[in-house]
């Protein structure tokens, strides 16, 4: 069951440790315990747009946010897929093991990002994971890579 299905952008922002203008995922198209597919429309006002192209930093940020949805979902939903209220999560890329960028998408395109969980270590308060990522622009492979993420629950009200 996709707990994120039919969520609007304001709801998606709740499940990622990011907010505007840093939010680089519009829709979570599919998610399970090991895979996630997302969509993101690149607008002229999007952070990391230069000369009408989405930069390398933007692609990497989109990939990281897509990946964080796989492991982050366990903080927001219980075993019965019921939403847990008032959860705050922080996260960051702890390592980029490999990134290949083949092209930069133009403004007004929608990129599709796919991530697959390779491994994870989970404690009560944090998770460390390794994920494979692919980003497509009009079915053309734009980025391929492997990265590590660190996610942690927090009680900081400022987040």
UniProtKB/TrEMBL annotation:
**InterPro entries for this protein:** ApeP-like_dehydratase, HotDog_dom_sf
Tell me the Gene3D superfamilies matching this sequence: Hotdog Thioesterase
Domain of life of the organism in this record?
Answer: Bacteria
Q: Name one Pfam family in it.
A: ApeP-like
Name of the protein in question: ABC transporter permease
What does UniProt list as this organism's lineage? Bacteria, Pseudomonadati, Bacteroidota, Flavobacteriia, Flavobacteriales
């Amino acid at each position: 069951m996709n707990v994120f299905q039919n969520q609007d952008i304001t709801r998606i922002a709740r499940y990622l440790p990011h907010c505007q203008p840093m939010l680089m995922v519009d829709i979570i198209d599919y998610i399970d315990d090991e895979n996630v597919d997302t969509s993101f429309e690149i607008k002229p006002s999007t952070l990391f747009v230069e000369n009408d192209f989405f930069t390398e930093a933007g692609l990497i940020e989109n990939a990281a946010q897509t990946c964080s949805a796989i492991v982050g979902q366990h903080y927001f939903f219980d075993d019965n897929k019921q939403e847990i209220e008032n959860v705050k999560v922080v996260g960051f890329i702890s390592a980029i093991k490999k990134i290949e960028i083949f092209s930069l998408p133009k403004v007004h395109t929608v990129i599709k990002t796919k991530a697959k969980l390779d491994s994870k270590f989970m404690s009560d308060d944090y998770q460390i994971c390794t994920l494979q990522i692919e980003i497509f622009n009009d079915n053309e492979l734009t980025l391929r890579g492997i990265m590590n993420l660190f996610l942690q629950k927090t009680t900081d009200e400022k987040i």
